[in-house]
């Protein structure tokens, strides 16, 4: 397509800008083949109960190591995948893989999968969720979809309809990075999220005694409580952050303090002493 050719615009030549565009073009090219080349993998980060510290779920996080470009951070390639809509097939791979891997964790442990607005606007997305659950045998209540406020900015109605269909299956839907988007609170009236994830910036601020951050976390927790939604604090790294967040009443904690994102095998090993880890990968209900 001629999208990058500037449509007859006359621009002054800027080497830095050009290098940036060129890098993007190369990454995009590499990304078009990354799925078939098996360059993607998932890592899983634990989310623990704020009181009992027991692992409730893992968030699946996508990693890409390109044969041509090496490791590329999600902060770089996710936006590119969204712009090019490659996030639709890539996101489907994430969803299917996460369900297939999570089905072998101890039964109550859930998996959370990040989903972009672009995916929610895809008319087949809800059916992809149905299919991923059926193919893996993962019970719907063990899958949580994570979305950000940004999905309500563009085409809120379509996104909402898709999410409602997914909720009707029994899956949870979490609102990610809460407080960093631009949308109004109006959609909280229409949609029953299972969890609100308080962005790490507020966690950090609260632990530094920043009065605005403290007030915001307190208000989000109170609001979530009265709307019967749970809360997760994102990016808890230190004992101090943990204590402050606990005191503020967040229900769940995620962050380097309890665990970094790890490969599936390591995640499974976390449960070695848990008693519930199946010895063999039998379908549910067939074990003695
Ligand atoms: P997110 O969904 O908010 O995920 C949390 C990010 O915070 C992850 O970064 C995680 O590694 C990082 N994190 C967790 N605990 C801590 C902590 O204690 N301190 C710090 N500094 N960081 C922490 P990651 O894996 O680089 O992912 C970045 C973002 O990329 C994600 O933010 C999500 O928006 C997006 N992303 C990742 N995987 C996927 C995916 O499969 N699909 C889509 N659509 N987006 C994804
Ligand atoms: Mg997330
Ligand atoms: Mg987040
Ligand atoms: Mg965040």
Automatic annotation (TrEMBL):
Tell me where in this chain the EAL domain is found. 24-275
The organism's superkingdom is given as Bacteria
Q: Under what name is this protein listed?
A: EAL domain-containing protein
Task: Name the source organism.
Answer: Novosphingobium cyanobacteriorum
Span within the entire protein?
494 to 781 of 781
